[in-house]
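Retro notes - structure team

What went well: the batch runner handled both jobs without manual restarts.
What didn't: labels got mixed up in the shared folder, which is why I'm recording both outputs here explicitly, each with its sequence directly above its tokens.

Job 1
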Amino acid sequence: MKTTKAMNQLVLGLLLVLALSACSSDDGAVNTPDAQDMSQEEATLLAKSESIEATSFDMVEQLYISVEESEAKMFPDCATITTVYEGGQRSVTLDFGDGCTLASGDVAAGIVLISFVPDPGVSRTITFSFQDFSLNDNGISGGGELIRVRENENGNPQSNYNSGISIDVANSEIVIEREVDHQREWVAGVGTISWADNVFEVTGSGSTTLSTGFSRSHETLNPLVRLGNCRFFVSGEVALTRNDQEAVLDFGAGDCDNKAVLTYEGGSMEITLTK
């Protein structure tokens, strides 16, 4: 009887181990439906990283355009642009100092650097980086490379860029790592004096990882639309994927607001984006 009882306990123990193993993901987290769903905070941080990354790239693209393609003034007087030409390469520094309010209402501080070889050809390769840079108190570091095309197949300027940046979230200990391969087409407002009438469409893919360990890959389903006078995307959809599970982040129908909706299997949640 003692032997039979011991065997039963052993079998039950093995079944429990197998059950726990089947319910665990590769990273050791329990793979219950709740563990796969994003929390409100995680969803908000993912959406926020999209907006921060896009606004940061605004600085890069505007800086290049202002020194190479346009005589229009694209930055307020509180920003200083310095250009150095050496060894066949042009290096440009955009310095926002301790803080500079942009036309969109965003507040930038620190330095954006770009460098390229002047060339009258149809495309240009530009490297960029951020130095002690912040946007609305969110610290941003890293950089990348872009290929600037003055006219794509639609006759519009386009920037194809890949970058890796870190975002130190304001008033938080969370750090967001973003790796992206994006295309940004300038679809309206090209050549006008005002930056406010510009419209951009962003497509592409990448990944976002929070310092908490949460991560998702992303790919645009419908182009993300950005206006020159709005700090948020006004429309477009992004598919977020993790462990073969997918959610869709929808930025709206064209209004400049701080709302987005995350739809996932079994429900949805509204997200309020902060600066």
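Job 2
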Amino acid sequence: MRIGLLYPAPDALSPANWSGTPAGLSGGLIQNGVEVVPISARLAPGIHQWVAVASRAGGERGAVADRMPVRQRARTRALAASIRRAGRLDAVVAMGTEMYELDAVLPEGLHCLTYDDGTLQQMWQHPDSDIRQAGFPSGHVEEWIRRQRASSRRADTCCVSTRWAAGSFAEEYGLPEERIRVVGMGHRPRFVANAGKDWNAPRYLFVGVDWKRKNGASVLESFRIVRRRFPAARLDIVGRAPAIEEPGVQVHGFLPREEPSAQKLLDKLYESATCFVLPSLFDPSPISYLEAGSAGLPVIATGVGGAGELLGAGAVVVDPKNGAEISAAMLSLANPESARTTGAVASRHAARASWDRVGGRILRALEETGAGSAVVDFRKAAQ
């Protein structure tokens, strides 16, 4: 089977896209015997520069400029051209559908599934989501939501990572339940050696780029409470955190996914930790929970969003705005036996959340659409 993997970036399969999700999904589909064809939105240099200038003509910048109509139209044309160049395809798996018009990208007769960790609608409704905190103009966001809604209705099936996300596609976007599939989220396993781990000295690991949304300040305050009981406790912080100089705390900064040396350091931090703590104010489906589980770590997870579904009893789910709950969870997992046994449960759940399993579930959803019964070479059809 030959499947186009569509992500609206110059390099669809770059590990820098969406926390490595397109790259991970590509690998998972390949493990299931699929030939993956990247469908990218690469503009010619001259056109790219013109579009960039035109999209900022009204003073827009950043994500707003990137989603202005002129860029959306250019991106739509580039993706459609990429599909034509791809030749014969059995289907397309599309992501980031608020950034282009999916109906205009897809040739008639080509099966399509989308893959998301939530709807923009449910994220826009939550005051602590990144899209709400960014302060985007409501009119622009409503247009992005319209595109995503239209794309989900154009697709044969909408695949999502959690039941939380599935509920929004049904309720906010009006999709019938039979066109929604919960296929889970994959991750890059952290194969670390736990045989010689010292579980007696609590060592917490926080990994979050967005210090505010990931609730870093509350984790730090709860750690201070823990350290009064356990003076040897440590807290390692990865991400764009403020400068922190206090006993037991070490800030490692941002560790890029695409840099081997940075990931080697992160592997060592997972290996030395006894607990992963990330009680985000809002989190749809954090891959870092699965990575922590693969390293045998118990996770202190947020109850806001779909994050709490990922690891079952391998996570302690807390109210992220209740500091007492966060500190109580950290104290409970300072117990060596509790940390070890809860981490073992997390490890079993993470093992079932591999990209090859996600790819297999997507293929089963695709089979239900009848994909493969009417395969077309869209490059030849366009001639």
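One thing worth noting from job 2: DSSP finds 16 helices and 14 strands in the chain.
We'll revisit the folder naming next retro.
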